[in-house]
Amino acid sequence: MDNSTDWLAAGGANPRVRLLISGLIAAHVLAVFICPFAFACQVSNQSMSPFASSLYAIARPYSQMLYLDHGYFFFAPDPGPCHLVRYEVTYTDGREKINKTFPSLADQWPRLLYHRHFMMAETLHNTYAPPTGPVEPTPPPAGATQEQKTQFQRVDLPLFREAKQAWEMRRDQHVAVRDSMVKHLESLHPGGKVSLVRVEHRPLFPNEVTEFGKKLNAADTYTDLVEPKTAGGAQ
């Protein structure tokens, strides 16, 4: 019997060691469970139940270190819509404009290259934040009570500042990803001006297939997610 077997045998006979190992195994199993549980409790991308949120906050460092919190939404029972990027290249010298979409099986092959473009399109969508941030709360009127003034200073303003900071970080990230894609596409089409539009492709409902025979790529399953213009007209 080697030293490792001796150690295991000694640990098995020690209740404290057995309890420690059992606790570590239980904690790992719980961390594996919490990630899909938290996702199932999401109301939207920004909201989940308080109970699930509390559990996920505890497990997050360990889950992220071992990559246990990967994209469960990709799988059944409800994978949700997927996203594409449609881009247009226009020229000022009279050349015909180019309209393309990625990912595209016609342009990206082998499959690994298609998957890479699929993930880039999803990344652009997942980082999206609108061009305008949260609205600053209105200060209490002149005749407001002290309680209302305190609520504004200690609760409303801090919440607004936190939301604004989160929006700024997300917006900056989205713009950086978008501009990087535009720059790369313009390098592939010298002299052209590139504009991007995010496109959402929803899955079909069962009755659309069984009763109407609709195809997966039906035109009405695609929706352009056009970014609203700001007051200054910029996007």
Give the helix/strand layout.
Layout: H1 3-13, H2 15-40, E1 42-44, E2 47-48, H3 50-65, E3 82-91, E4 98-102, H4 111-126, H5 146-188, E5 192-201, H6 206-210, E6 222-225
Helix pairs in contact: 2-3
How does this model look, in words?
The protein has 235 residues and is an alpha+beta fold. The protein folds into two domains: 72 residues, no CATH class; 144 residues, no CATH class. The chain contains six helices and six strands. The strands form two sheets. The chain has a four-stranded antiparallel sheet. A two-stranded antiparallel sheet has the order 1-2. A hairpin with a 6-residue loop joins β3 and β4. The termini are far apart. The mean pLDDT is 86.
Structural class: alpha+beta
Mean pLDDT over the residues: 86
Q: What is the rounded distance between the termini?
A: 71 Å
- Main sheet overview: 4 strands, antiparallel
Q: What global shape is seen?
A: extended
SSE string, helices as H and strands as E: HHEEHEEHHEHE
Stretches with pLDDT under 50, minimum 5 residues:
none
Quantity of strands, as a count: 6
Domain tally: 2
Question: Which percent band covers the strand fraction?
Answer: 5-15%
Helical percentage: 40-55%
User: What's the gyration radius in Å?
Assistant: 26 Å
| H/I helix tally | 6
Largest sheet strand order:
4-3-5-6
